[in-house]
Amino acid sequence: MKNILEAPFLREICKTASNMYRQGWDERNGGNISVRLDEEQLTPYLDVKNVLRTIPTKFDAEKIAGQYYLVTGTGKYFKNVEDDPETNLGIFRISADGTEAELLWGYKDGGRFTSELPAHLMSHIVRQSIDPTSRVIMHTHPTYTIAMNAVCPLDEDEFTHRLWQTNTEAIVVFPEGVGVLPWMVCGTNEIGIATAEKMKEYRIVLWTNHGIYGAGKDLDEAFGLIETVEKTAQIYMLTFGKVQNVIPDSGLKALAEWFRITPKKGILQ
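The structure corresponding to this sequence follows.
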């Protein structure tokens, strides 16, 4: 077997976690990442028949039974992932009945996956049904996005419009807009169900006074999506109450036409 610490998928999630920490998005043990893997990616590094232990998923994940996931651990700090991946990450397979995670590697201190796993897996199920190439769900706490969420109405179209008007890249990167949930208790199946419902329409979902859930085909795409929202929210908050110039709706329509994208209906006048 090859050294799993040299596996491209493992090195990439380690670098991503470190980068997210350096951005200031993942204080203490805040944030979590899940990546769907193929068995072919794993077999050079792991015996996928060797299950170390099983961990209850605490919801019915039968729709994705047999799928493999690389997931950050509960209570783990992103700043430590790169130095000690085997403690801070785990690779598991969803059991045939969807009620257990069959651990194949990681969580070596006896730990387990993030407490937000049900929300992740529910979102994976939805995003895969829309786009089979979707592989990543990323949850993080970007500062300016949370700040903007705190001072704006809890209206998805209004929030999206303000982002689009602030930064030319915004409508290009997330033409479908941004979903917004009211404040809810985190770590529950209820917030997971609500997030997955929003994921039917959006790749970005804001948890009010908490953070962002983002989806993508790979770590770069999910990170870049969140990064663009956060950069735009930063510009918005730095200019809040002082704005003289915004991108007019006619300009946003011109951007959509030029980049051949379809913005969410009902936002532009």
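The domain at 116-269 is CATH 3.40.225.10 (L-fuculose-1-phosphate Aldolase).
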